[in-house]
Amino acid sequence: MTSRNGEPAAAASRGRAGADPDADPVIDLAGVTFGYAATPVVEDVSLTVDPGEYVAVVGPNGSGKSTLLRLLLGLLEPDAGTASLFGEPADRFDDGERIGYVAQHASAAKGMPVTVREVVKMGRFPHVGFGRLSGADWAAVDDALATVGMAALADRRIAQLSGGQRQRAFIARALASEADLLVLDEPTVGVDAESVDAFYDLLSTLNADGITVLLIEHDLGAVVEHADRVVCLNREVYFDGPTDTFVESDALARAFGTDAQFLAGGGE
Amino acid sequence: MTATAVLAGVGGGIDPAVALLHALQAGAVGDLVFGVLLWVLEQWYWLMDWVYFFTGLEMLNPRYRYMHRAVLVGLCVGVMAPLIGTFLVHRQLALIGDALAHTAFAGVAVGLFLNAVIDLGVSPYLTAVVVAMIAALLIELISEVTDAYNDVSMAIVLSTGFALGTTLISLNSGGLAVGVNQYLFGNLSTVSPRSAAILLVLFAVIVGTVAVTRNQLLYVTFDETAAAVSGIPVDWYNRVMVMLTAMVVVGAMQIMGVILVAAMLVVPVAGATQVSRSFTGSLLASVVLAELAVTLGIAVAYYGGVTAGGVIVLVAVGIYVCTVVFGRLRSGSEDRRSLDTGSIEVDDARTGSDD
Fold first, then answer.
1. Residue A142 belongs to some domain of the structure
2. Chain-chain contact of A119 with B222 (C-beta, under 8 angstroms)
3. Which of A6, A61, B70, B237 has an alpha carbon within 20 to 30 A of B351's alpha carbon?
4. Tally of domains in chain A
């Protein structure tokens, strides 16, 4: 998968995805069970995400959210059940440029000297393989930087940025790779409140442009405000449906086992 | 190059006839490659003679061919050690070089042992490359199974390698122990044409591999999970990386010695991290700093009559301290500048340094 031409197939399919309701689901988990030891961390989870959706996965700490994410990205193989990405088995999926992954805390090596532009450039690596970036590749990098509003900071060292700016840089990397699916693992941990709002506005804009968003989040307020659909997880799926219905249901109390509230910024 | 021929034969097939054929072919190819490398070496001597002619540096006197080779080895090490070191340091793998150097010592002992017992006539550096690369793969496979590089297993590999080395050497008491110092501490005057040729091969393999896979190595180093998601076979690149590290370690061992070789992987990179902003910049800076340390170190070692490895490391550490001071001064002045220009910039810097 390391060498491929920079053909605009991903961009084309993104445009198509919104129009064609019969397209393969972006994510398709069927009866997935996984455990690091004998007790499963994730049990019999089925979940389908269609192109263009904005889905948030919520759940208490240790509820298997991050494991579920690793399963659906194909980084882990399920013990039982199947995980598919764009209609292919997730662990053998090799159109890596279609997925943009933004980790919690932007965990990447912070002491490493690397500029914002170099980070965004990595998004083009699946397209260029062993080759050099062409003019078109650099244009995609610049476009992505402009979209997230980081063009002015492109030559800053990533370690010098604030948490919110750093997460924008990682989003830009996903955009540069022309991802159809954006997967974010608690992206706003350690990001100041003002930047969090701007960050969610950016996600909504990208979603409106046709990018599928899957968000793992502990901040219930943000979820309720932004996501179209909520999946409530605690080892099993407790709730899966539109956000409005989720707010009215008792799924939260059952999953968290406490009187959790929808306070903005007051997740845990 | 009978050694490569035999090794290739052993790896080539089980059928002895096939193995022999392989050995013959590999022997012919090996001789050809060795011939080319000797020719390259001749050109280097010629170049150094000219440098001597123009500068009059006694160190490069054409009578001292070994110094010409030592300088060549030093310059190559100054490129390849920080090149690989940059990828290691930023993954918190600085100590893997040390562990592999100690297993390379076991490889040297294996070579010396084989030469003494069955008169193989193989360069100990070749056996060192083989043993260090096997150890590197083992470390990597263990870390893949246990899902983490841990310093305990690294320490075990390190001491096992060294223990194996000392045991093998003491087994053949007498003549062998005399030659060991050169491997432990490095020696400018023992860089033979053959070991210089081995180093040139290692240099070509390392620089070539990094040049081709630089994108993937950078992505894997910076963000392993995202690299895996983007379809890069992370495990394979990790394996390539540790194998290259084993090669660097053996290459640099000739002048640095087993004990100090890891410093070349780490110290110039640490210095470059202080002064550079971009990754490309830090790669270049680390090579420049390493070359500076190597050339200064070799010169001081020659004129002062001291061990080159030690001096090179001391010079490198000196340069590192300078870069730390320089980095502090520069970031201080940057802070002051942003205080003047506006509050937003200051906020950014604050939040950045807080987490």
1. yes
2. yes
3. A61
4. 1
Residue A67 sits at the chain B interface (C-beta within 8 Å)? no
How distant is the Cα of B203 from the closest Cα of chain A, in angstroms?
Answer: 20
With an 8 Å Cβ cutoff, are A112 and B272 in contact? Answer: no
What percent of chain B has a predicted confidence (pLDDT) above 70? 83
Q: ipTM score here? A: 0.83
User: How do the domains of chain B map onto residue ranges?
Assistant: 1-62, 64-354
Q: How far apart are the CA of B159 and the nearest CA of chain A, in angstroms?
A: 29
* Distance (Å, whole) CA B130 – CA A40: 43
Instruction: Read off the pLDDT band of B352 (50, 70, 90).
Output: very low
CA dihedral in degrees (B257, B134, B228, A156; nearest 10)?
Answer: 10
Model confidence, pTM: 0.82
The pLDDT value recorded for residue A98 is: 87
Q: What is the second-level CATH architecture of the domain B64-354?
A: Orthogonal Bundle (1.10)
**Residue span of the structural domain in which A79 resides:** 9-254
Q: Which of A157-161, B248-252, B273-277 has the lowest mean pLDDT?
A: A157-161
Query: Which of B209, B216, B230 best tests the A interface by mutation, with the highest count of A CBs <10 A?
Result: B230
How would residue B17 be classed by pLDDT, with cut points 50, 70 and 90? low
